[in-house]
């Protein structure tokens, strides 16, 4: 499976490079998803299916949700719709599609090539192995990682809090109020 | 892996600090009160400090293969907890009038302290990394705590971006070492690297990347560029925390890493670290000469002091452990005192901190005792006899001479001479006659507040260690690194 490893790794490097060089956040996110999928492929090729699946579910999945949220929050009217259209024009999909296509071809080859192209050498690390390690010698780290997340959360809350004093209203109304304000500053 | 009661006792300080954070969080969710949050934090930190006595009875003990609680870690845990207590008392006075929510600060402080406690007792690269992140991540928030102030926000963002870079370097270095040796524990690394692989290019690259990562966290030259900006921009209590707790923890774990996985072979690593030490001493002191901001001066001087400390790391035999511990203890007491005075002059919060030397012009004629404290701290940083700084520097000299590191000893001498100039410049400023009304001044009752009391105590301590260091030396001599079982 070495070819799968190197190919997926190359895809990951190329797409990550594009994440950094993209000027547009939405384009960068597209490439980020490709990069995460490629990293998942690397995990699969190395014989760590659990890590690969986690990479897809947590990272690619969570990033997708983030992506959706960003689009939702930027939904500010006709001007924004046009802007989004210009962001997501078909040309933009070519690059990520090619990269993902490479990986698709690679997977099909790996699955259906006969005789089997290559086998994964080395130990397979399954979900049970990961679980035993996490709740065996690494149990303290799991607990402390939660403290790490707590610290990050408190930091994000403190810095990201919007504390402009608004009269108490119900949430929807204040949201509309906010949207109107934003539109006001845009025009 | 079974955790018995003695394991739990060994983890008591860590658990108490984490529980404190959670309790403060729940209390804040119920009702916000700055006083209650601060008090709970101080109680929690004190309880953790007291629990070290219990831990001392079960130490040395290995809790999971990742963490080793021995007398060495107990000593550094005590230093971290005391420094954190000092910082939270300072923060209480400072944050009192911050036009923002104040309670989150104590949660962040608690998280960061927990990271420090883990770091000083880690004997595995995983716990090193998690500890380092747990310590630094809340620090981003703390540095940017007064984020309405442009400088504070800048400090937070600068620290976050550069620190993340450093973490990436560190992680990549670890990965390379793991690929080469197949183990992440300090002793395992030492054993497998001592055999044959030390000259392999991957090991050289891995160790080099780790040196970059840890060098950044210790802010030694040439990875020091962030230090003065962050020290200047962050609120004064946070600068104090950054200069003490994070330095203690990273240096302690570096020392343990060096003792358990010694870089033998042709010793290129020693040469690199010796060069970094020499560069830090020279660069730190030279750049401090022309600064006009007291916080920046202390920032640059911390670079130089870390350079002196690295001398002990380069020697890493004989007296080195003892010297490093004594130097760290004296440096921490002194830095806390100096930042304490800055905090008192800048508090209660009125916009950006009073960092400029101009603000301290003629402080003596308004606040003679506070000036005396700052003078003692400056003398101690310069390493004048009768202060704690002298004892620390004396130890570093001894180690340097004992290990025949003549270049480094020369660097310490040169650095001390340069240092004297700018420390004296600060002192002269304090005693000048100030013509106009002061813009910033400590509150009239500063000595009756906890922060003021703490600063006075620190001054007494610095003087006491300088005159009668034996108790500290006895304490430090008990703390040796325990080999893993």
Automatic annotation (TrEMBL), chain A:
<feature type="transmembrane region" description="Helical">
    <location>
        <begin position="134"/>
        <end position="159"/>
    </location>
</feature>
<feature type="region of interest" description="Disordered">
    <location>
        <begin position="168"/>
        <end position="187"/>
    </location>
</feature>
<keyword id="KW-1133">Transmembrane helix</keyword>
<comment type="function">
    <text>NDH-1 shuttles electrons from NADH, via FMN and iron-sulfur (Fe-S) centers, to quinones in the respiratory chain. Couples the redox reaction to proton translocation (for every two electrons transferred, four hydrogen ions are translocated across the cytoplasmic membrane), and thus conserves the redox energy in a proton gradient.</text>
</comment>
<keyword id="KW-0520">NAD</keyword>
<dbReference type="Pfam" id="PF00499">
    <property type="entry name" value="Oxidored_q3"/>
</dbReference>
<feature type="transmembrane region" description="Helical">
    <location>
        <begin position="57"/>
        <end position="81"/>
    </location>
</feature>
<feature type="transmembrane region" description="Helical">
    <location>
        <begin position="28"/>
        <end position="50"/>
    </location>
</feature>
<comment type="subunit">
    <text>Composed of 13 different subunits. Subunits NuoA, H, J, K, L, M, N constitute the membrane sector of the complex.</text>
</comment>
<dbReference type="GO" id="GO:0050136">
    <property type="term" value="F:NADH dehydrogenase (quinone) (non-electrogenic) activity"/>
</dbReference>
<keyword id="KW-0472">Membrane</keyword>
<keyword id="KW-0560">Oxidoreductase</keyword>
<dbReference type="InterPro" id="IPR042106">
    <property type="entry name" value="Nuo/plastoQ_OxRdtase_6_NuoJ"/>
</dbReference>
<comment type="similarity">
    <text>Belongs to the complex I subunit 6 family.</text>
</comment>
<keyword id="KW-1003">Cell membrane</keyword>
<dbReference type="InterPro" id="IPR001457">
    <property type="entry name" value="NADH_UbQ/plastoQ_OxRdtase_su6"/>
</dbReference>
<keyword id="KW-0812">Transmembrane</keyword>
<keyword id="KW-0874">Quinone</keyword>
<protein>
    <recommendedName>
        <fullName>NADH-quinone oxidoreductase subunit J</fullName>
        <ecNumber>7.1.1.-</ecNumber>
    </recommendedName>
</protein>
<feature type="transmembrane region" description="Helical">
    <location>
        <begin position="93"/>
        <end position="113"/>
    </location>
</feature>
From TrEMBL, chain B:
<feature type="transmembrane region" description="Helical">
    <location>
        <begin position="128"/>
        <end position="147"/>
    </location>
</feature>
<keyword id="KW-0812">Transmembrane</keyword>
<feature type="transmembrane region" description="Helical">
    <location>
        <begin position="328"/>
        <end position="349"/>
    </location>
</feature>
<feature type="transmembrane region" description="Helical">
    <location>
        <begin position="35"/>
        <end position="54"/>
    </location>
</feature>
<comment type="subunit">
    <text>NDH-1 is composed of 14 different subunits. Subunits NuoA, H, J, K, L, M, N constitute the membrane sector of the complex.</text>
</comment>
<keyword id="KW-0830">Ubiquinone</keyword>
<keyword id="KW-0520">NAD</keyword>
<keyword id="KW-0560">Oxidoreductase</keyword>
<comment type="function">
    <text>NDH-1 shuttles electrons from NADH, via FMN and iron-sulfur (Fe-S) centers, to quinones in the respiratory chain. The immediate electron acceptor for the enzyme in this species is believed to be ubiquinone. Couples the redox reaction to proton translocation (for every two electrons transferred, four hydrogen ions are translocated across the cytoplasmic membrane), and thus conserves the redox energy in a proton gradient.</text>
</comment>
<feature type="transmembrane region" description="Helical">
    <location>
        <begin position="159"/>
        <end position="179"/>
    </location>
</feature>
<feature type="transmembrane region" description="Helical">
    <location>
        <begin position="202"/>
        <end position="226"/>
    </location>
</feature>
<feature type="transmembrane region" description="Helical">
    <location>
        <begin position="6"/>
        <end position="28"/>
    </location>
</feature>
<keyword id="KW-1003">Cell membrane</keyword>
<feature type="transmembrane region" description="Helical">
    <location>
        <begin position="267"/>
        <end position="290"/>
    </location>
</feature>
<dbReference type="InterPro" id="IPR001750">
    <property type="entry name" value="ND/Mrp_TM"/>
</dbReference>
<protein>
    <recommendedName>
        <fullName>NADH-quinone oxidoreductase subunit N</fullName>
        <ecNumber>7.1.1.-</ecNumber>
    </recommendedName>
</protein>
<dbReference type="InterPro" id="IPR010096">
    <property type="entry name" value="NADH-Q_OxRdtase_suN/2"/>
</dbReference>
<feature type="transmembrane region" description="Helical">
    <location>
        <begin position="297"/>
        <end position="316"/>
    </location>
</feature>
<feature type="transmembrane region" description="Helical">
    <location>
        <begin position="238"/>
        <end position="261"/>
    </location>
</feature>
<keyword id="KW-1278">Translocase</keyword>
<feature type="transmembrane region" description="Helical">
    <location>
        <begin position="369"/>
        <end position="393"/>
    </location>
</feature>
<comment type="similarity">
    <text>Belongs to the complex I subunit 2 family.</text>
</comment>
């Amino acid at each position: 499976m070495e070819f799968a490893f190197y190919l997926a790794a190359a895809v990951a490097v190329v797409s990550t490079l594009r994440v950094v060089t993209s000027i547009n956040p939405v384009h960068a996110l597209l490439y980020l998803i490709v990069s995460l999928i490629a990293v998942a492929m690397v995990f699969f090729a190395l014989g760590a299916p659990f890590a690969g699946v986690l990479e897809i579910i947590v990272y690619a999945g969570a990033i997708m949700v983030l992506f959706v949220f960003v689009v939702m929050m930027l939904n500010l009217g006709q001007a924004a719709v046009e802007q989004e259209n210009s962001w997501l024009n078909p040309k933009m999909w070519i690059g990520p599609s090619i990269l993902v296509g490479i990986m698709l071809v690679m997977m099909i080859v790996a699955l259906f090539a006969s005789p089997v192209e290559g086998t994964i050498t080395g130990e397979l690390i399954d979900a049970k192995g990961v679980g035993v390690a996490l709740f065996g010698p690494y149990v303290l780290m799991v607990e402390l990682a939660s403290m790490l997340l707590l610290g990050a959360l408190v930091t994000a809350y403190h810095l990201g809090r919007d504390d402009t004093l608004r009269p108490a209203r119900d949430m929807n109304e204040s949201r509309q109020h906010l949207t109107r304000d934003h539109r006001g500053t845009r025009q | 892996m079974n955790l018995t009661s003695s394991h739990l006792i060994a983890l008591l300080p860590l658990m108490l600090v984490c529980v404190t954070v959670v309790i403060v969080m729940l209390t804040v969710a119920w009702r916000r009160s700055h006083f209650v949050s601060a008090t709970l934090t101080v109680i929690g930190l004190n309880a953790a400090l007291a629990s070290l006595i219990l831990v001392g009875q079960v130490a040395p003990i290995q809790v999971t293969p990742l963490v080793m609680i021995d007398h060495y870690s107990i000593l550094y845990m005590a230093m971290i907890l005391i420094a954190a207590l000092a910082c939270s008392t300072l923060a209480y006075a400072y944050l009192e009038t911050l036009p923002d929510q104040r309670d989150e600060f104590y949660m962040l402080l608690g998280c960061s302290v927990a990271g420090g406690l883990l770091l000083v007792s880690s004997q595995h690269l995983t716990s090193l990394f998690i500890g380092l992140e747990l310590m630094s991540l809340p620090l981003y928030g703390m540095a940017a705590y007064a984020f309405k102030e442009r400088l504070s926000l800048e400090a937070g963002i600068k620290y976050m971006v550069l620190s993340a870079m450093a973490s990436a370097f560190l992680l990549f270095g670890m990965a390379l070492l793991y690929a080469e040796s197949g183990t992440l524990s300090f002793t395992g690394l030492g054993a497998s690297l001592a055999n044959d692989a030390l000259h392999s290019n991957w090991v050289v690259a891995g160790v080099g990347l780790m040196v970059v990562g840890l060098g950044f966290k210790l802010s030694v030259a040439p990875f020091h560029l962030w230090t003065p900006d962050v020290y200047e921009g962050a609120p004064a209590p946070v600068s104090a925390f950054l200069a003490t707790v994070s330095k203690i923890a990273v240096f302690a774990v570096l020392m343990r890493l060096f003792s358990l996985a010694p870089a033998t072979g042709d010793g290129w690593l020693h040469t690199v670290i010796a060069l970094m030490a020499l560069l830090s001493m020279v660069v730190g002191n030279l750049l401090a000469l022309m600064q006009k901001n007291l916080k920046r001066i202390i920032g640059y001087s911390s670079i130089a002091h870390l350079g002196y400390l690295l001398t002990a790391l380069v020697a890493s035999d004989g007296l080195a452990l003892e010297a490093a511990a004594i130097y760290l203890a004296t440096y921490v007491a002194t830095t806390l005192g100096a930042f304490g005075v800055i905090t008192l002059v800048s508090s209660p919060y009125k916009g950006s901190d009073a960092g400029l030397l101009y603000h301290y012009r003629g402080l003596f004629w308004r606040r003679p005792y506070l000036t005396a404290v700052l003078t003692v701290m400056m003398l101690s940083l310069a390493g004048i006899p009768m202060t704690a700084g002298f004892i620390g520097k004396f130890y570093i000299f001894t180690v340097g001479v004992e290990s025949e590191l003549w270049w480094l000893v020369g660097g310490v001498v040169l650095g001390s001479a340069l240092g004297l100039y700018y420390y004296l410049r600060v002192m002269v400023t304090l005693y000048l006659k100030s013509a106009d009304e002061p813009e910033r001044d400590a509150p009239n009752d500063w000595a009756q507040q906890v922060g003021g009391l703490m600063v006075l105590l620190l001054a007494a301590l610095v003087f006491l260690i300088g005159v009668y260091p034996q108790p500290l030396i006895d304490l430090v001599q008990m703390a040796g690194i325990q080999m893993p079982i």
